[in-house]
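Complex 433.
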Amino acid sequence: MSKNRRGTLGLLAVTAIAIAVGYLVGVGIQESGTAEAAGGTVTSPTGTAPDRFVYYPGTEELAEGEIRVIACGTGMPDQRLSQASACFLMELGNGDKFIFDIGSGSMRNIASLMIPYEYLTKIFLSHLHTDHWGDLDSLWAGGWTAGRPVPLEIWGPSGMTEEMGTAYAIDHFLKANNWDRRTREYKITPIPGQITVHEFDYKGINEVIYQDNGVTVRSIPAIHTGDGPVSFILEYAGLKVVFGGDTSPNTWFIKYAQDADVVIHEAFNPPSIFATFGNQPAQLAWRACCEFHTSGPAFGKIMSTIQPRHAIAYHAQLDKGTWRYNLYYDGIRETYDGPLSIGADLMVWNITKDEIKERMAVVTPDAWSVPGTAQQPPPQPGVPDPMSDFIKSGEWGEAFNAQNDMLDEHMENYNLQDVDWRPTKPWYKSDKD
Ligand SMILES: [Zn+2]
Ligand SMILES: [Zn+2]
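Predicted structure with zinc ion bound:
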């Protein structure tokens, strides 16, 4: 009997058991096999509570040979406050940081990690659905205003035709954002607005698409709604992490994700959820979950075949503690009993040869951008002014002059006398005159 046909009492019983299991998985106790309290033993009233199963961004140096993966989006195209669309950040002990997909809404999670934008420049796109690259604009422009000194670099697949490929998408992304780009180029500085695209053949099977500084990234084809989507395999320091973008179960994944330490793969909610809570017609619901995506039982079958050291499921809106969550979890467990995380936004995995540690990041919702050591260059001479004299003639000088005390102080503090922008304005009246 399928789960959604169970009687109410049976469902309640299953739910109660699964809530308990789901809770343990959620805090990582069951998978790591340790039973001590989350805060360790506090030995005095003024003591600390170590080992809390949480990660505080910016407080831990990565060891050489270590990988930290942070889920910055685990949900669906219709994002919710608790779950942005697909995005996984991988930080390596050699200093490299790679963003695998940057789906709609994920930038707020990335920003909450307080990583200087000069380090967030390498982006790998599995495919061009907006729930996998829709927040590129936020990183592009937001990083630009927050001090990134260099262009972004994007690796993404070709398509069946030129206009279905990543290079075409980014070219037209820049065209669609032309007004944004031209105005920021003039007011800030042009170089951070540039994007370098490395488009590779989506049909490449385990082909190297990136190799530098001890890191190799390969791509394999994925099967998902049209030609073009891929999955990525990252290797560093003898560790192998596989990131599946959207894909149905496919033979390339089974073959080339073998021997992986961590495998990230989509797992969709069952069709009953899409038909009821997901507002989808029934004929779409069972194809969305299970024809052009991968369902829980199919995900489980993939993982029990690959047998990674740790499996991560994502790409489903999950309501923890409810029967809907348990239905999802039980679906995976029908076919897989190995180490598993049900991905949630800001879940963190530290991966070494000895251990895979799952925690939750604790972030402030009011994070500021953090400076690195690189300096963004000042405005570049010769960039055309995108504002006409007609528009400038409407500036109301009285309000501009009302800020002069504040601006004079800023000028003194930062020695900006040579670049004071006010004297050329017709309305300028210095308080010092
Ligand atoms: Zn997709
Ligand atoms: Zn997707």
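The chain has two domains: 8-33+52-361, 387-433.
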